[in-house]
Amino acid sequence: MFNSVNNPFGRRIESSTSSDTNGRREKGQEQPEKERKLLDEEESDEVRIGGLPLLTEDDVIYMVKQYISNLKAEHEDNEKVQQKADKWLAKFDVKKFMKRNPTLTSADFYMIMFAETESVTK
After folding, report:
1. Which of 69, 74, 85, 104 lies at 20 to 30 Å from 120 by C-alpha?
2. What percent of the chain stands above pLDDT 90?
3. Higher-confidence residue: 122 or 30?
């Protein structure tokens, strides 16, 4: 920080700002270590997707009927969608659906049903 013009005695002069900078560097190194420790300790708090109970066939049948009735209610002015929804429900096979989605939870159900019935609303 000081050159020979500012330091005529040739000794090293440390100012209070340089020690603050060093102190901050040491604190900066301690901070990531503390963060790592906190992250390691908090890993047990993770949300697990599989925490929801798996759906049974009866649950799926009930939810499919409810989903289709809601879909029909949303499009009650469109007769074509009404007919497609009834046709889709008549063709629905719960055994095949459960075989394709063996670990189905309620959250997964709505995503899958949206994808399966997308053609009904078009």
Report:
1. 104
2. 48
3. 122
d(CA 86, CA 73): 12
**What is the C-alpha separation between 114 and 121, in angstroms, rounded?**
10
Which range, 49-58, 85-94, 96-105, has the best average confidence (pLDDT)? 85-94
What radius of gyration, in Å, describes the C-alpha atoms of the chain? 33
* DSSP structure class, residue 52: S
Taking a C-beta distance cutoff of 8 angstroms, is the pair 75, 117 a contact?
no
Q: How far is CA 103 from the centre of its chain?
A: 18
Answer yes or no: are the C-beta atoms of 120 and 74 closer than 8 Å. no
Distance CA 85, CA 68 (A): 6
* C-alpha distances in Å from residue 47, one per residue of 42, 51, 68, 92, 102: 11, 8, 30, 33, 21
Q: What is the largest CA-CA distance in the chain?
A: 97
Q: Residue 13 has which token pair?
A: 């002069």
The pLDDT of residue 22 is above 70: no
Of how many residues is the chain composed?
122
